[in-house]
Amino acid sequence: MKVYHSIKDFTEKDQCTILTIGTFDGVHLGHQKIIQRLKRIKAEENGKTAILTFFPHPRRVLDHENEIKMLTTIDEKIDLLDKLGLDFLIIEPFTKEFSDLPAREFVKNLLVDQLKIKILVIGYDHQFGKNREGDYEQMKVFGEEFGFRLEKIPVHDFENVAVSSTQIRKALKNGNIEKANQYLGYEYFLTGEVIKGQGLGKKISYPTINIHISEDYKLIPKTGVYTVKTHIGKKIVFGIMNIGYRPTVDGKYQTIEVHLLDFNADLYGENIRIQMMKRIREEKKFESLEALTKQIRKDEQTARDWLGLKLIS
C-alpha cells in the first residue's frame, strides 16, 4: 500500500481510483466491510483501491471542548490498513480551513481533478463539505456532472455488522475488552516505548516493563489488570498488565506496566505492541506490599489458567 500524506501529493495521475472516505478510527469490522466492497469492485473493474482519511480527527479540530480519544494512532491505522490489501492511502491534514471547503469545490478540485475517482463508495449517512452541506443525494448530482459512479453502502449492511467506533470507545472505557475485541475483529493494542520505571516490580519479585505512549490522543482503556500478549521480535510473550495509579504506593500518575510470563530480557528503548485479551480485575489499594504481591500471584495464576499455561517454578 502506497501512502500519501496529502491529496495534493497524490501522483497517480493515470489511475482510475475506486475511493472511499472516512476517519476509519480503529479499522473495525464495519470499516473492513467497506474495504471488502472496494476490493470486490476492483476485481470487476479496472482501477485501484484507495481510502481518503484525515488527521487529526475532524472532531478534535472543530470541537475544542471534545477531547475525543482515538482507537488507533496514525501509525497504527496505517499498519492495519496496509494488511487489508489496499493500493493507496491518502491522509489529508485536517484543518479549520479545509473544513470550510464548499462541497462542490471539494468534489471537483480534490476528488475528481486530483484523485481521479472513477467510483466513489460512501455510507448511507455520509456528509461532506462546509458545514456538512453535502450528502448522498448531492453527491449523486456531482457524479452525473463530473462522470464518476457513486455506490452507497445501505443502512442494513451497517446494521448487520452493528458496530461503530463510538461503541468500541465506550466498551474500552468500561473495561469490557472482550466486547471491544469482538467489534474490532482483532485484539485492541497499545504501542509504546519501554522506559525505566521505579523498580518496584523487582523488589516484590514481579519485574515489569513500563510502556510510554507518546500520542496523547490514544485511548487508554479503563484502569485495571489485564491478560495480554506482546510480540518481541518473532516471539509471542504473554503477560499481565496493570493500567493505573499504583494506589498501594501512593502513585501520582497513570502508568502502564506489564509483567511478562516466562521471559526475561532487557527491552529498554524498544517499541513494542501490547495486545489486550481479557480483563482480570479492578485496580485496588492493598494494605501492604506483601498483600499486593499475594494478589499479583493470584492474577498470574488467573491469566495462566485462562491461557492454558503452566506455572514454572
Summed up:
With about 325 residues, this protein is an alpha/beta fold. The chain has helices spanning about 30-45, 60, 75-80, 95-100, 105-110, 135-145, 155-160, 165-175, 175-185, 200-205, 290-305, and strands spanning about 1-5, 15-20, 50-55, 90-95, 115-125, 150-155, 190-195, 210, 225-230, 235-245, 255-260, 270-280.
Describe the structure.
With 313 residues, the protein is α/β, with parallel strands linked by helices. It folds into 2 domains: 2-163, 3-Layer(aba) Sandwich (Rossmann fold), CATH 3.40.50.620; 188-307, Riboflavin kinase-like (Elongation Factor Tu (Ef-tu), domain 3, Beta Barrel), CATH 2.40.30.30. Helix content is 33%, strand content 26%. The strands form 2 sheets. The protein has a 6-stranded parallel β-sheet with strand order 1-4-3-2-5-6, sandwiched between helices.
Judged by helices, strands and strand pairing, the structural class is alpha/beta
**Proportion of residues in extended strands:** 25-35%
CATH C-level of the largest domain: Alpha Beta
What's the CATH H-level homologous superfamily of the largest domain?
A: HUPs
Total tally of structural domains: 2
- Binned, the helix content reads 25-40%
Element order, helices and strands?
Answer: EEHEHHEHHEHEHHHEHEEEEEH
SS summary, helix count: 11
Low-confidence stretches: none
Cα gyration radius (Å) = 23 Å
Give the oligomer, counting copies of the same chain as homo and different chains as hetero: single chain
Q: How is the largest sheet built, in terms of strand order?
A: 1-4-3-2-5-6
Which of globular, elongated, flat, extended, rod-shaped describes the shape? elongated
Q: Which second-level CATH architecture of the largest domain applies?
A: 3-Layer(aba) Sandwich
Q: Largest sheet at a glance? A: 6 strands, parallel
For the secondary structure, the number of strands is 12
Rounded to the nearest angstrom, the distance between the terminal CA atoms is 46 Å
